[in-house]
Each structure stands twice: as structure tokens, then as C-alpha cells.
User: What shape does this take?
Amino acid sequence: MQFVDEARFTVRGGRGGDGSVSFNREKYKPRGGPDGGRGGDGGSVVLHATEDLTTLEPYARRQVIKADRGRHGSGNNRAGERGGDTHLDVPVGTQVFDEHGLLADLSEPGASFVVAQGGEGGRGNGSFATSTRQAPAFRERGLPGEERELLLELKVLSDVGLVGLPNAGKSSLLRTLSAARPRVGDYPFTTLTPQLGVVDEKTHKNPFVVADIPGLISGASEGRGLGNRFLRHVARARLLALVLDASEDPEGAQGTLLAELHAAGLSERPTVTALNKIDLLDEELRAYLRDAFPGAYLISAASGEGVGVFRDHVEGMVRRLGERAAMPATEREHRVYRPTWKGLQIGRENGGFVVAGEEVERLALKTDWDNPEGIERFQRELEKSGVVGALRRAGAEEGDEVRIGGTVFDFR
Assistant: This one.
């Protein structure tokens, strides 16, 4: 399966089912009365974080993902069946964005988040029977489900991130440290996508995950090369291992790496330095590197020299860092068919009036505009809620156009 760390698509919750208009006409029950049941709620679209998936490739070519709509109500006060939810598995480390920013950070296995809530089902005529209105012949329509465009970004979760310039030997080091077998070549940018390996030796009580990050170049924090895609995965690593090519300007490489990590706000992350390819150096150059890079580890991924000591040191650093801190999911309330305010607002537009408010917009959406009794009920509710009076105070006169959500009618 191809590694994909970004996917964009639209999610749509299921529409609620419509209520039913029905009257009980059983034999020996002449006064059976209205018995229309309510519609079922629409299904929701839910994301689940799982360790069984490591790529967003299943969603790379999806356009719209939707849940089932609720079933309509029926006679004898039978409610419609609720629409089925649509469950989407995503890799652990997936961040969920919409046009307003971050919605959720699914950084723990089993974490879930509802990205599109299903619409509410409408009530049947049995719900509107009263002592003064004993035979209502209208119902409510179901509300549409939430709809939004999502951007999913995968940030690889790892304990150690191998950071270096292209061709520094990071992939070779990953092969030596773990059982992972990334492609290795003697040319720059061999690694185009993050590769993960688990260091699981019998001598290590706590296995840890190492990520081989695509090669970094100067200006990556500004989008050059793999740019933000590189930094996206580095940001998840608890410990950064700077892998330098000891045979080719290690001082310059270190300066470039530190500058880019600082520009990306990662300069405070714990680091350890490894000077790779020392098998190509004589003893004089090795002595120089020990003086120039105090505390750094001289290793050769090709021959295995020094890798064991480096691995043990990294394992100790990871153990001292403790358990990975859970990144809390950020949930933000969102509405498609409801405004963000709860009060009533009236404005003018193109010579008419626009009414906005949570309750009045829900009322307009639920009204059955093909049913005269339903329209009468809508008008009564506008009067009871004070909307008619507010429109008059705003200057509305008979015949003026009024819009509530997607509904347009003449003021009376």
C-alpha cells in the first residue's frame, strides 16, 4: 500500500427521516386519532484511530463520504429506523482539519471523533395532537446532516526521528538498528516517505520506534524540498538523532540541521548526534571529529561499528523521557444548518429581510411546505416566538420578501 500522509474529502451526515401523517382507522376505534410516528435520526461519520493502518491511501481518491439517512416514520406511532453510522479507520497520529482549523488530534489508539453529525428526525402528526387540536394533519421533515470538507494530515508517531541531509545514511542506520528494510541507494533523496522500524532487542526492556525521515535541505522550514512534509513527521518524534555524514562537511551539515529545526520551533527537542560513515576515515580524521563534536557518537551503518553503543545510549534517553505524553483531541462545536449564535438577528438584503437564529432556522427546515397545515403552524410559531413582531419593528410590510435559511416567503 502506498504511503500517503494527506487526504482531502467531504463528509456528510445522514439526513433525518420525515415524520408521518397517519390516522388510526381500526375497526371499533372510531376515535383512534392521529398516530403518525417520528422519523429516525440520520447516521454520523466517525473517525477511529487504529494501529493497523499506517497510511491515508484509502482516502486519497475519495470525493464524498456519507452516512445513511434515517427512515421515515409510519402509522401506529412507529418510529423510523436510525440511519447507520459510517466508520472510517485512520492511522494513529492523524490530525483532522476543516476550513476553521484543527478539529481533532487522533494520537492515541482507539481515539474517535464524530466529523459529521446526522440530522434529527422529524416528528409525526401524533406528536402534535392536543385537547384543542385533536386531528393535526401535518408533520415535520427531518433535518439535513452536517456537511464539511476535511483535510487529514498524518504525522508519524515515533520515539526517535533520524534527521539528516540527503545521503547521510539514515536508511542504512535504520536497517542496522531494526528489522526494517527501507530502500537504500548511493544517491540523494533515496527516502521519499517516512520509514518506521522497531528496535526490539532482548537486552532492551523497552522497545522503541525509530523513524527514518526524508532528507532535509536548507530552507525546508520555508517549504523547499519536502518542506513542511518533513517537519510534520519530525514534530512527532520525542528524540531527534542528528545523523551527519562524517566524510563530507559534518560541521556545515550540523549547522543546516540546527538552523532548520530552530526555524520550525523544534530546537528545544532532545537531540543526540551520530557521525556516520566513519569506515571511510583514517584515525587522524576520527580524532579530529571527537574533538570537534564532543558527545557525538562515531558510527558506521555499513560495517556496524559503534552502532551498538549508540543504540544503547538512545534507548536510555528514550527510557528517561518516560511515557509518551498524550496529545489531547481538540473538539470544537460545529454546525452546518445552525448558526453560531442562539439569539435572533434580522438584517436587510436586496430590498428584503433576512432572519437568522438557531430555533427559527430549524423551524423552517422542519416545515413541510407542501402541506397547508404545516405552513399555518410555521406562521403561528413565528408569531409566538416574536419573529413577526421583530420584523414589523425592523420596517417589514406586507408583501416584503423574507428569507430564513434557504426558505423565502412573502411577509404577511
Observations:
- The chain has three domains: 6-154, 160-321, 345-410.
- Residues 187-191, 220-227, 325-341 have pLDDT under 50 and may be disordered.
- The first strand starts at residue 6 and ends at 12.
